[in-house]
């Protein structure tokens, strides 16, 4: 267990908040520059998040939140759990933490210069290792649970693509079966798989993809949207065929459907944010749940993944769906029993009219979409405990940190 930080250390960390507000992004950018100079450490990261600046910005927000909450670290519990789950998916181990410590402390000294006094550096060293020990301890618990679970494993396990299915003009699903033919760990609806991929011309890449299949013991399914100039998504769509072997770590993530599931439930998604909800819907369907609300925004009917599945669930009375087409005007024939189509994006005004304060809301999609939805729900009186969200990649929006 991590030793509590002393009063002096916490006081110094709090005093650093203005400096982090002014220079936090410069510090984390320099930190990643140092980390990525080591090829062994570089392979642990999604490099695309470095190129677009998303990862340094997300970390800067996280470090700032840590400093602001140094006297009330219980407020960071959700963020710590998400980080631990992501680290386990990427197979981060205790021996990786000293590299991050050296890079972070070196970056603080480099950016702050003479302002980085020995006292400040000592305080940040203590604060880093305090948090690191918490993460290492939690990650060890998760690794042990994965190893003990039926069909579970630790590390990278080879899976073969057993089937490809085109879900829309932008989304393709890949069903994955373990090469060893043994059972797989039953995932919790909403979790994701992490992949270690060797992409020709780019080398080692890491990605996380939500599991879109209902829980089972034999295989998983992921559903991947092609992203413009996406290194990995283009490769998956263009080159990965049935029979391709991919390296996969055990299911991870804390954006999950409760057991028992809360009722009523509203799913809010945009783009490929629907994928964890397809898994959740599969579990709810198996449990004969009813009264689910499904609200989804996509570009056009041609980009709408899992449309037939949603319409089938609606026809059977399990859910009521609202589908928004941001770049098309729906035809009357596209409406169906329990399904209403809309032209344009889902707006805060529309959502505000539809709020059910007794419902639990699950939200997944681009950061801006989630930020607007969360703000609308809170303004409409939905308790924060009934608002759950998942983000792709790194949370580079202050609303989504913590």
From TrEMBL:
The keyword Oxidoreductase applies. One of its GO terms (molecular function) is heme binding. InterPro entries: Cbr1-like_FAD-bd_dom, FAD-bd_FR_type, FNR_nucleotide-bd, Globin, Globin-like_sf, Globin/Proto, Riboflavin_synthase-like_b-brl. Its cofactor is heme b; FAD. Residues 4-140 form the Globin domain. GO terms for biological process: cellular response to nitrosative stress; nitric oxide catabolic process; response to toxic substance. Its EC number is 1.14.12.17. Keywords: FAD, Flavoprotein, Heme, Iron, Metal-binding, NAD, NADP, Oxidoreductase, Oxygen transport, Transport. Is involved in NO detoxification in an aerobic process, termed nitric oxide dioxygenase (NOD) reaction that utilizes O(2) and NAD(P)H to convert NO to nitrate, which protects the bacterium from various noxious nitrogen compounds. Therefore, plays a central role in the inducible response to nitrosative stress. This is Flavohemoprotein. It comes from Komagataeibacter rhaeticus. The gene is hmpA.
């Amino acid at each position: 267990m991590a030793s509590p930080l002393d009063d002096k250390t916490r006081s110094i960390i709090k005093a650093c908040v203005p400096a982090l507000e002014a220079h936090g992004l410069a510090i984390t950018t320099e930190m990643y520059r140092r980390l990525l100079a080591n090829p062994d450490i570089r392979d642990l990261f999604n490099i695309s998040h470095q190129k677009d600046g998303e990862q340094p910005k997300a970390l800067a927000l996280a470090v700032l939140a840590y400093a602001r909450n140094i006297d009330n670290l219980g407020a960071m519990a959700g963020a710590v759990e998400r980080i631990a789950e992501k680290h386990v998916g990427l197979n981060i181990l205790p021996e990786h933490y000293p590299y991050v410590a050296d890079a972070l402390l070196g970056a603080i000294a480099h950016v702050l210069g003479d302002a980085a006094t020995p006292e400040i550096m000592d305080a940040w060293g203590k604060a880093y290792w305090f948090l690191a020990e918490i993460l290492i301890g939690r990650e060890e618990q998760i690794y042990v649970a994965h190893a003990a679970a039926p069909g579970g494993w630790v590390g990278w396990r080879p899976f073969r693509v057993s089937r490809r299915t085109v879900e829309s003009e932008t989304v393709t699903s890949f069903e994955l079966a373990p090469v060893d033919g043994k059972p797989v760990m039953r995932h919790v609806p909403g979790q994701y798989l992490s992949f270690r991929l060797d992409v020709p011309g780019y080398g080692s890449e890491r990605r996380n993809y939500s599991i879109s299949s209902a829980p089972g013991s034999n295989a998983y399914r992921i559903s991947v949207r092609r992203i413009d100039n996406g290194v990995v998504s283009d490769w998956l769509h263009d080159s990965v065929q049935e029979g391709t072997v991919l390296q996969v770590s055990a299911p991870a993530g804390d954006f999950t459907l409760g057991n028992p599931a809360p009722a009523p439930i509203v799913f809010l998604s945009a783009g490929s944010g629907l994928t964890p909800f397809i898994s959740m819907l599969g579990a709810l369907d198996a449990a004969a749940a009813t009264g689910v609300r499904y609200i989804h925004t996509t570009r056009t009917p041609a980009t709408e993944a899992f449309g037939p599945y949603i319409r089938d669930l609606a026809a059977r009375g399990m859910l009521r769906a609202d589908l928004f087409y941001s770049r098309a005007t729906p035809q009357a024939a596209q409406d169906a029993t329990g399904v209403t189509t809309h032209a344009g994006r889902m707006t805060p005004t529309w959502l505000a009219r539809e709020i059910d304060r007794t419902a639990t809301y699950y939200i997944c999609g681009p950061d801006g979409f989630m930020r607007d939805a969360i703000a609308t729900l809170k303004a409409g009186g939905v308790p924060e405990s009934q608002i759950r969200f998942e983000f792709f990649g790194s949370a580079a929006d202050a609303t989504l940190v913590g």
